[in-house]
Amino acid sequence: MPLEDGDPVKQRGQRVNGKVSGTPRLGGTGDPPLQGTPAPDGRTETMAEGWEPRPALGDGDVTPGGAPQQVGQEPGRHGEALMAELSELVQKVVKSSSWWERHGVDISILACSFLLLPAGFLCLRSAQAIPFLAGVLTLGVVHHTLTVKGSHLASHNALTESRSWGKVWAIFFIELCSAFTAEQATYNHVKIHHGYTNVIGLGDSSTWKLPFLNRYVYMFIAPLAVPIITPLVALDLLRNVEWIAALRTLCCMFLGLYCHYWLLLHVSGFQSLWSALLCMLLTRSLLAHPYIHVNIFQHIGLPMFAADRKPKRIHLMSLGVLNLPRNTLLDWSFGHSLISCHVEHHLFPSLSDNMCLKIKPIVSQYLKQKKLPYNEDTYTSRLRLFLQRYEELMVHAPPITELVGIQ
């Protein structure tokens, strides 16, 4: 009889370079979607967010005592109690925080990015190398701040407490700035990835895998094509949304791309179509490498579970999510919730980047006190790991973590 959500688990640890790996053996892929999984048009409502915790385990991560962390020795109800206790601690912090802390800081970062746009386009007018490169760098960072940080916060309705305004910001950042479809972005990221993190066939990050590419092409060359692939994928996904939403998305995508092109011609002074398009590609792919890397580093290679055999959420997230160190550039352009506070973000996805950073000490201390994994690793360490084990992690189907302790 399959385990219910929250049944205790125990990971079969493997050693990689003398460290504990969260990569077990494969059982199979392509598990059917769970009953109640929402459709992109929103006809089925299954909440993937909420005040529920979830940490992660990656290569090189051990418990504070130095031994591999084992979960599943506690009853499922105790896991729910742990989640409730942590949620209460976090809610106290949120309630005592000002609007500036909850939303203002991140809105200000996005606003500053908008204000930098004129300077970036004007710098591109220069025939000298340094001002021109400064313009490319400025527009590249602004683009990723709006499309990654802005879209991510908007998809979780973390920019405002109003659902109506949240929908407006989602359309603006995801469709106009990012050239993607808001319905599909929210469905795939919030409903699936967050609802079923590291569950095979659902939230296992398999959409980031391109097994026909070798490791060096995937890690260092393919990211340059992200600005081209993104709108093409969006066009394909429009088949899954209502025609009104599809028409709106097409208009927003066209408007966003054309405005960028028009500004390059009339403000930056580009003389030809191809030079403007090349500059668009350059600025929109400036941080594409860390964007791809971050998306795979923090989940792939960690424990994976079958849809009908997964632990309670707090254990699931403590095994399947990983934090990277703070980085000024990536913190600004991607946001804390995607870099150094990814564990906190998966536990409390509706919180803004600044609030994730604020609750980080509470979450890390709580998980460590309860002997749950709180996984952190460096960017270079994860990059080295993926280059060494690319075939296992990115080509072959992910292994399913062994579950024990059936109640």
TrEMBL record:
TM spans (from-to): 216-238, 245-263
Span of domain Fatty acid desaturase: 132-376
Cross-referenced InterPro entries: FA_desaturase_dom, Fatty_acid_desaturase
Gene this protein is translated from: Fads6
Protein name: FADS6 desaturase
GO molecular function: oxidoreductase activity, acting on paired donors, with oxidation of a pair of donors resulting in the reduction of molecular oxygen to two molecules of water
GO process annotations (BP): fatty acid biosynthetic process
Residue ranges, annotated region (Disordered): 1-76
Protein's organism: Aramus guarauna
UniProt key word Ribosomal protein: no
GO cellular component: membrane
Top-level division of the source organism's lineage: Eukaryota
Keyword vocabulary terms for this entry: Fatty acid biosynthesis, Fatty acid metabolism, Lipid biosynthesis, Lipid metabolism, Membrane, Transmembrane, Transmembrane helix
